[in-house]
Amino acid sequence: MTAQTYVTLNRTGDKMPLVGFGCWKVSPNDAEDTIYNAIQSGYRLIDGAADYGNEVEVGRGINKAINKGLVTRDQIFVVTKLWNTYHNKDRLRGAFDKQLKDLGLDYVDLYLIHFPVPLKHVDINQAYPAGWYQPNKEEIEFEASPMHECWGEMEKLVDAKLARNIGVSNFNVQLILDLLTYAKIKPAVLQVELHPYLQQSRLVAWVQSQGIHITAYSSFGPASFVDLTTDGKTAAPLLEHPIIREIATKHNKTTGQVLLRWSTERNVAVIPKSTNQERIESNLDIFSWSLDKEDLEKIASLEKGLRFNDPYSYNFNLPLFN
């Protein structure tokens, strides 16, 4: 029996695919063809962000697929994210409008607040994407842009039918609890780092109990962070881990498929990225089989509380997750 391949979002009832294609670290030079190829290969969720610096090209890939008749717009679930320098209630809409124009779309399916970190504004004409620092500065600078005002502007995008769903990324339970006290529109999705080295079981269970779905990023663990980790965090690559290899051999699957299947069996969506056609296709093939109790127990034993996407690791002096 084939497992369900999507989750149904609160409020809208939109069906969000459990497997999408992630756009982080997709070179702008390759993004149009990469995204078009991903859609041609069967992906129906594209996960991007302003901070990735490739939205123009990602949008071209999406629109090329639509114009060539591979899909219609309502068959593609497009996700993007608000960057930290545009949290101010007077800045958010302008930043979103630029993103929508860059993507060449009339609306997005899901708009996320990328980090709960209100950084000092950087004008779009001065630097885009802005990154973590003010131009020519070496320390991050914050601004007084409260989350309740930021979320109110997110809700206005829904009212204007520019974002069908809104959500958050890299938020903890405390901040979500606070948000739920004033939100007129509850977040549809929380996107966080999740993999066997950082399983976050209590977070996952609580957030799902609130009717909020979860998307996992970095499902392959340290693979994406080789060039970012600066504080000595190291671990054996999950794609080559003996336990993951053993389970993959048992099911005649790849290690990547095992890692993705582990998340989707928790009803958690995944957004792997690859430029290898064989892996692009195999990453989608995770619904016709399942892990057994023994597999899950072995994977549970890999928990290390090891977080790789941590601003503190990048010398920002921002212990966001502590």
Write up this protein:
It contains 10 helices and 10 strands. The protein is α/β, with parallel strands linked by helices and 322 residues long. The chain has a single domain (6-226, 263-288), classed as TIM Barrel (Alpha-Beta Barrel), CATH 3.20.20.100. An 8-stranded parallel beta sheet has the order 3-4-5-6-7-8-9-10, covered by helices on one side. Strands 1-2 form a two-stranded antiparallel ribbon. Helix 1 (28-40) runs parallel beside helix 2 (55-67), helix 2 crosses helix 3 (92-103) and helix 7 (242-251) crosses helix 8 (255-264). It is globular. The model has no long low-confidence stretch (mean pLDDT 94). One of its GO terms (molecular function) is oxidoreductase activity. This is NADP-dependent oxidoreductase domain-containing protein. Belongs to the aldo/keto reductase family. Residues 22-303 form the NADP-dependent oxidoreductase domain.
Keywords:
oxidoreductase; alpha/beta; 322 residues; NAD(P)_OxRdtase_dom_sf; 13% strand; two-stranded antiparallel ribbon; single chain; NADP-dependent oxidoreductase domain-containing protein; 10 helices; TIM Barrel; eight-stranded parallel beta sheet; 10 strands
* Rg value: 19 Å
In what order do the strands lie side by side in the largest sheet? 3-4-5-6-7-8-9-10
Please give the share of residues in helix: 25-40%
| Text of the CATH class | Alpha Beta
CATH A-level architecture: Alpha-Beta Barrel
Unreliable segments of 5+ consecutive residues: none
The CATH homologous superfamily corresponds to: NADP-dependent oxidoreductase domain
